[in-house]
Amino acid sequence: MNFKYEEHHKQLQVECPPKTYKPLNIGAYRWVFDKGNEQNFQTQYEKFMKRFPNPSKPPKRYNDISDIEKRGTKMCEDMAYSMYITAEKASDGFAFLSERFPNAEFGKYIAFAQLDKTDGVNGEIDENGHYNHHPFKSVDYENRFQIIASFIKL
To answer: Where are the domains of the chain?
Structure first.
């Protein structure tokens, strides 16, 4: 299977995704906006690149070889989808980042899908219930994930 960002992975000076990432059957909770919003299934890498309109001249962060060598592992993580193991952990993560970055928009809802081994590879689940998922190119995440809860900002 080919990864969504495979050509970009090849530019990094690190193994991306890492060999420790495995295909799993796993529940995935993710923050999303309204159904069909292009931001729903963009990685941090993709969001960052969209801010620079000339694709033939990517920003230094993803172009300069010295920066790639220094930031390879982080850049690889930026090319993964951020997922949570439970809706509660996704909500906790949303609350934490919303408090730290009050003007940022992370989503409006929590969406869920059951991922299987044909969807991509997954990193270890951290103490916050978060894991990174490197998607395969052909998976239609927008239609797989269903909104299950909404965030209410007070």
So the answer is: 6-150
